[in-house]
Design goal:
With 450 residues, this protein is of the alpha+beta class. It has 14 helices and 22 strands. The protein is elongated, with a radius of gyration of 26 Å. The mean pLDDT is 97.
Length: 450
């Protein structure tokens, strides 16, 4: 890493094997590259559009490369294409398009794995710039994104603008009293907190907010975000965004409305559509926390409708609640019904029910309707074994899991054990204290964790 410089708004690395310095600076939907070459009659750049379906067209007289990739990690995704456009500030004197490892005679190709090489003559320490933008909507939209976000800006202008944006964003919080290393750690963590979820929306030629929908496969109006799992983020990230960056969280709530309208469910893990990862119905927490912390000017009634739908049904790819029929009838998800992670699901559903109750109360929903969720929020008690002081799996008949080891990873839990999950009662700490036998026993047990 001695040859690297990494900042939120800029990255550079010296590629010693080739005597080339590569730099990049971003905007929201585009980036500009700067390559510093040695003297060479055949300097080059490789554009790899990946396998799983791709397209590239090199247009030398316009110093332009366009194309798309259809590769994605999780799906299926209907009509998914990641379009790109690239402009080079130097005449392209050599081109070659490859079908995987086989060179073709054309400057345009649509195949499983398309790559292109462009080349030119460079002088010593000559700088070559590439302006790159992408779009999930169309090549024309990628072109528009590039024009809107970079225009005629030089590399250094884009870099300085990006630095200004990051400084403004990170300056929302002021860290004082720490060492230099502690301050660096603080702002590095804040920087990483702001990576997700990703903006999936774009701004069209009429200056309207639009997005490619992972649910319908076409362009839809309004906001959309993706690339986050609520199991990972409902406890800390979204409450933090609600307090510190409320305007962007309003956009996220509008995006959730569009998730529900277009796909029929709120996502629990978006990648960018519904993905069968982890568990819980934690969209309830994300929605309720935003509104109760002051969110407004979006259709909260539609989101409440979505929460009720998700709380009482099992949907595709981890949406809704898996095991909901057991949770609603028994008050817990048993370990012997081929579902798995029963205690973890029960604890998270109970907290989600608390979140729904709080939102329903804030919206003045009928008492009989919301009291159901208030009652269900106490379901955490059904998986607590008072004889040993731990959360513990149960079968359908109500018998605790035997043998039991609080250190056992997995089973009735996920990415943890009973020592972790026993504390997972965010909404009723006093109730958990009481179950453990009072303040002294609770405190002693908590201290023993550390």
């Amino acid at each position: 890493h001695k040859s690297e410089v990494a900042k939120p708004y800029y990255y550079s690395v010296f590629l010693a094997d080739h005597n080339i310095t590569a730099e990049i600076t971003p905007t929201e939907r585009s980036a500009q590259f700067r390559f510093t070459y040695p003297k060479n009659d055949s300097s080059s750049i490789v554009i790899d559009a990946f396998d799983k379906g791709s397209y590239i067209k090199v247009i030398p007289n316009e110093r332009k490369i366009v194309g798309y990739s259809t590769k994605y990690a999780r799906g299926p995704l209907k009509n998914f294409k990641n379009f790109f456009v690239i402009y080079v500030d130097k005449p392209i004197t050599f081109t070659r398009v490859f079908n995987d490892t086989v060179a073709t005679s054309s400057n345009e190709l649509n195949a499983d794995h398309v790559l292109a090489v462009i080349g030119f003559k460079t002088g010593d320490k000559e700088k070559v710039h590439l302006k790159v933008a992408s779009s999930f909507i169309s090549e024309a939209q990628a072109e528009l994104n590039l024009k809107r976000e970079q225009g005629n800006d030089s590399f250094d202008v884009v870099k300085n603008k990006a630095k200004t944006v990051w400084n403004k964003t990170l300056s929302r919080l002021s860290a004082e009293g720490g060492t230099v290393d502690q301050t660096r750690t603080f702002y590095s963590c804040l920087y990483r907190m702001l990576f997700f979820p990703n903006k999936l929306y774009e701004i069209d030629s009429q200056n309207k907010i639009v997005h490619w929908s992972p649910y319908t496969g076409d362009t839809q109006p309004g906001y959309m975000f993706a690339g986050t799992g609520f199991w990972d983020t409902f406890r800390a990230l979204y409450p933090f965004l609600n307090l510190v960056y409320p305007s962007i969280n309003k956009e996220m709530q509008e995006g959730l409305i569009n998730d529900y309208k277009e796909g029929g469910w709120l996502p629990e893990w978006s990648s960018p559509g519904y993905s069968n990862i982890m568990l819980g119905n934690n969209s309830a927490s994300v929605v309720s926390d935003a509104y109760i912390k002051g969110g407004k000017n979006y259709d909260i009634q539609k989101l409440y409708e979505a929460l009720i739908h998700g709380a009482n049904n099992e949907g595709p790819n981890a949406t809704g609640r898996r095991g909901v029929e057991y949770y609603n009838s028994l008050g817990y998800v048993p370990h012997d019904v081929r579902i798995g992670e029963g205690v973890a699901r029960t604890l998270e559903y109970a907290y989600d029910d608390f979140a729904i109750y709080q939102l329903g109360k804030a919206l003045n929903k009928p008492t009989a309707e919301i009291n159901l969720y208030k009652k269900r929020s106490m379901n955490y008690k059904n998986v607590f074994d008072t004889s040993i002081g731990f959360m513990r799996g149960k079968d359908k008949a109500g018998n605790f899991d035997t043998p039991f080891d609080p250190y056992r990873w997995g089973g009735s839990f996920i990415e943890g054990n009973s020592w972790h999950y026993t504390w997972s009662v965010f909404h009723d700490v006093q109730g958990l204290v009481n179950l453990m036998g009072g303040n002294q026993k609770f405190t002693a047990k908590l201290d023993s964790v550390f």
